[in-house]
Amino acid sequence: MGEKILNQLSIELGKRLRQKQLSITCAESCTGGWITKTITDIAGSSAYFNRGFVTYSNDAKHEMLGVSQMSLTQFGAVSEQVVKEMASGALEVAKADFAISVSGIAGPEGGSEEKPIGTVYFGFATRDGENIYTKSYRRLFTGDRYSVRLQSAIFSLKTLLEEIIKN
Question: Looking at residue 165, what is its pLDDT?
Fold first, then answer.
């Protein structure tokens, strides 16, 4: 059921991006490329999707997207600061109009009192001329690793459709 929802969201996202002649990129950590896969499952997605980034490690976040070592050390990979930097870095590198970033703790290990398993941060970036605007969200999902990752992918596409690409 969840994957069917993802497919429907991807189709709608593709339609809107085509209509507006805009492009998107993804910078993913805990979702491991699932959002990118979902977007590119749609035939013709090369019209609005050029590249994505799976930056699972802190080194990858820093090297590929320009996330600062200070942010990674001070706030951790699963944080508002890092997902905003991931999104803006992906936007710059991919030269896209919109970027989604995701970093979280899908489990079954790795949680803490401050950031329990199921904690996921999302970053969204867009540009207006030379300026880049970012927005972030924090969610706490329940379920196993698969469920947390699926809910993260759904939330990403739904949020992009509802709040970032407004009619």
Answer: 62
Using alpha carbons, select from 118, 81, 101 the residue that is nearest to residue 24. Answer: 101
Between the alpha carbon of residue 26 and those of residues 56, 61, 104, the distances in Å are: 13, 12, 15
Does the pTM surpass 0.85? The reply is yes
Please report which residue ranges of the chain form alpha helices under DSSP H: 2-20, 34-40, 58-65, 69-75, 80-94, 145-159
Give the separation between CA 16 and CA 48, rounded to whole angstroms.
10
Of residues 98, 95, 97, 88, the one with CA closest to residue 65: 88
pLDDT tens per residue, range 75-126: 999 999 999 999 999 999 999 999 999 999 999 999 999 999 999 999 999 9
Count of residues in the chain: 167
